[in-house]
Fold this protein.
Amino acid sequence: MTTFTYDALPGRVVFGFGAVAELPAEIDAFDAQRILLIAGASELELARALCAPFADRIMTTFSGIRPHVPIEVADSAREAAADADLLLCVGGGSTTGTAKAVALTTGLPIIAVPTTYAGSEVTPVWGLTQGSRKTTGTNSVVLPRTVIYDPDLTLTLPASLSVASGLNAMAHCVEAFWAPRRNPVSSAVAADGIRHLAAGLPAIAADPGDGTARADLLLGAYLAGSAFAVAGSGLHHKICHVLGGAFDLPHAETHAIVLPYVLALNAPNAPEAASRIASALGHENPVQGLHELGTKLGVPEGLRALGLSESDPETVIDDILALAPADNPTPVTRDGLKNLLRAAWAGTAPTREEAA
Ligand code: NAD
């Protein structure tokens, strides 16, 4: 018999083409009169247009968004929130992250209107950066109460950013199968997320104006964020976190390169996950399916293409081993990790045998 614990997360989601027309009604549901609008400079025009029907209730606008929410940005946004009764954020993960930083200290509710495929809007995870050090934490107060997903708002996101963001979502879905708080619900959500991402990603790379593909990717991103929020992260995220921090690697590319190799390591000892991932990818071999998808999308061939030297990965093996989850489907050994990193560095086709 399957036994599990599942903490379902609250939140209202309004999804669909034109869904953003529901924003005034969603604002009314909070009876908000003093709204802090949070949107980056490049999304400001869009955000102001969306707020036109209730412009008199926008108390202040904060647009000083920066990646990874530096603490100074959080402080300024918190000051701007004095006397506000609702936070409305329009933008990508950095913008949602800024709203979360404000909610963390003020307890104000958030309505989120995402314009990328980050998925942060459905997680209770916040992140703040002081100098070069990023701290993350989990607090239900930062979980947006309402999320409005409108694929039309993502049409302007360039193909390269869309692919990077979508592949990041793919990593959340794949890893959800062996992450610490996995359960049948998060796995079902993750499998469907993979299906939508695998359909949307190549279509957007071919034609960024493909609305159906945008909807697939946005739904996939929502499902990925939901799976990650419940299941958490595992070995893959630990490897990328250590590599990214040690060698200042680009986040999305590192995830995209490493993911098939972690799947190759785990697949032999997680056959049900492997079979569900394969079926969601529409490929008989999940590892190959993921690798081929990455190649089709122009993912760099191996970590060496990101400027890493051959000996670099070995220098962080101890750091990864210290963080590796004890219940990873394939026990993480020094040799296993060394093989995985060597293959991921070279960009050779990942195979299940690498688990040996
Ligand atoms: P981002 O928010 O930094 O946006 C990237 C760029 O895209 C920005 O220049 C932005 O102005 C632009 N942009 C946004 N929407 C656009 C649109 N529709 N058209 C054209 N340009 C647009 O990047 P992101 O990938 O959305 O988010 C990344 C951040 O989110 C990271 O800091 C990551 O750690 C965080 N994140 C957090 C969680 C969580 O659960 N806390 C989950 C996923 C990601």
Remarks:
- The longest strand covers residues 86-91.
